[in-house]
Design a protein that fits this description.
The structure is a homodimer of 359-residue chains. With 359 residues, chain A is an alpha/beta fold. Helices cover 41% and strands 13% of the residues of chain A.
Chain lengths: 359, 359
């Protein structure tokens, strides 16, 4: 049943009522957002890249207890850099440590790549979908995930990455435009200066692979969903619009930053390139610094500083991720948002096909 | 009559049969492309920023003699920088002058802003549309253009620029996404790092102004046109797809570069930021250099070098402008391309509204 959608392949694959994935968003998403999205008819996502396997088990149980529908677990597949000296980065942050009286260096929630222990948790909790950022896990692990019956999604920022993922058997490709908030998932060689906007990326990816394409980045309302279908997508993944929901775990400063909506790429918060609205750290240092150690190591030195600064009301030492359509977002519960997105998209699609005149 | 298009405001405004403007593209566009586009039902454009008023008169006469339909004349509105020392730039180019045996410093075709003499030509030739890049001319000149009956289009890269243009009475706003080939038209303060993708830009501009919005950048087929309408546009401006037509005046090297399609922003060719595929100069120097004098002055020192290099078969000292959807372009006559764009867009729109299932 397509329910008025021009392409039902993602609906068939996921079992969702509407072709929307609530984006995982590590650090901001969680149980409540996923529950709201699933109740609204979308695929709900849990960002698992900063969780332990036991936390994943507990969060999935909490979602399952409250909502019936497709759940996506998202994991990272980065290679952990070894023997990195983050001395230059710590030296750059030293004045802030002094300003906020930071002495201890507590362990931050480390972003770890998907591994065998986490895979065991997936085998237990059996999500309907599993999505990976920064490539895919090793073939044996990927096979174990697939054997659970979960549909596997990979994230591509170029047609080449989409082909790489399709060759490894993903069930669908997320085409992430440079408009997307948070970390760009680029994992094959290539220059950030060549980053593709979603308008060009979706048709190029749709021409390059035969699996369904899920458009991500800069989509925050029904117009964007309809446009994604026009370009050849079978679904969309929406992040920033869900950030504005009361269920998201972001600061008031971050919430206010969404309305301003002037995001840029920065490497300051993790060492990886990610799109966010500048706060104090980005304004002071500039968004890109060579002193920052590679992903995900920059976060370790920042974590105690962020904690101390936020205790004093300064939220500019944590990331304020936002996509380029951030100012289209409204504050409404995730379930309400999801239903509005689907309704507005269907209305937009019907208008497009109607050949009517607006004037 | 909307002819199946979901929004007929641009058709009414322009008199075109389909909601497409063939982008002007100074240095590559011209009489033949404009004729083909008009014959196909689009608005044809003549890039006039590097022409004299008499050349404009002659080119308009040539188009009028061969095609009946709406013609757009495009002009630049930059402020000419004064007292600029381009010594550092010339020093950077000196090894290439030596390599190609360049001695003389001929005058290149200077990019001049729209002025009273050019306005007199517009008053004579009476184009249906006039579009401006880098802002608008002074109010008195703008009023003279408007008094000819021409519809006036301005180019915006942000919602703020769209509002600025609307407040000055433009009849439609071109929303130029960062995917667009050639020069970004950004004219109000703002950082290039904040450049917006078309997917976010079109709905933000459509919400900000009441005049029709023309989407530009990364659109090269019917899917893109349909998506632009979904996002709130009333028309599209398409450049790179027309570059691939036999009527365009680009080199074979440039033509081959379109298929590769990996474009980045560079300031090397004019001093202004523009998107193109790297050739030898961009590869040697890197795409962005601080030594380059401000727009449009960089072109003066490059012109004789480019001429000498091209005489020896090296085309990497001229710009190879391309938008991000360049690899979607095919080589076919402009009239054929225009009819295909319209046909494919209408088919895509009908599919979107049909609620049918593809599998």
């Amino acid at each position: 049943m397509s329910g008025g959608w021009p392409d039902s392949r993602f609906l068939a694959l996921s079992g969702a009522a509407c072709p929307v994935i609530q984006a995982p968003m590590a650090g901001a998403g969680g149980i409540d957002l996923a529950i709201g999205a699933i109740r609204g008819g979308a695929v709900g996502s849990l960002p698992c890249g900063m969780l332990t396997p036991d936390e994943v088990r507990a969060q999935v149980a909490a979602v399952r207890a409250a909502a019936e529908g497709p759940l996506n677990l998202n994991f990272f597949c980065h290679a952990l850099p070894e023997d990195v000296d983050d001395g230059a980065w710590r030296a750059l942050l030293a004045p802030y440590y002094a300003e906020y009286g930071v002495h201890e260096d507590d362990g931050s929630a480390m972003r770890l790549p998907f591994d065998a222990r986490m895979c065991a948790a997936v085998e237990e909790v059996r999500p309907e979908l599993v999505s990976f950022h920064f490539g895919l896990p090793a073939p044996a692990l990927l096979e174990r995930v697939r054997a659970t019956g979960a549909k596997v999604l990979g994230n591509a920022t170029t047609p080449d990455e989409a082909i790489w993922l399709a060759e490894r058997g993903v069930d669908a490709v997320i085409a992430q435009g440079f408009e997307a908030g948070g970390h760009t998932g680029r994992f094959l060689a290539g220059r950030q200066e060549e980053a593709l906007g979603l308008f060009a990326l979706v048709p190029l990816v749709a021409d390059a692979v035969t699996v369904p394409v899920i458009a991500a980045g800069g989509i925050a309302d029904g117009r964007g969903i309809a446009a994604a279908f026009a370009l050849g997508a079978s679904a969309v993944q929406i992040g920033t619009a869900y950030l504005a929901c009361p269920e998201s775990g972001i600061s008031d400063a971050h919430r206010a930053a969404l309305a301003a909506g002037r995001s840029v790429f920065t490497n300051l918060f993790t060492g990886g390139l990610a799109r966010g609205v500048p706060g104090r750290l980005m304004r002071d240092l500039g968004p890109i610094r060579p002193e920052v150690p590679p992903y995900p190591l920059a976060a370790a030195a920042l974590a105690p500083l962020r904690k101390a600064a936020e205790a004093q009301g300064e939220f500019g030492f944590g990331p304020m991720w936002a996509g380029q359509a951030a100012s289209l977002a409204r504050s409404e519960p995730a379930e309400v948002l999801t239903r509005r997105l689907a309704r507005d998209a269907l209305a937009a699609l019907a208008r497009l096909g109607g050949g009517t005149t607006t004037s």
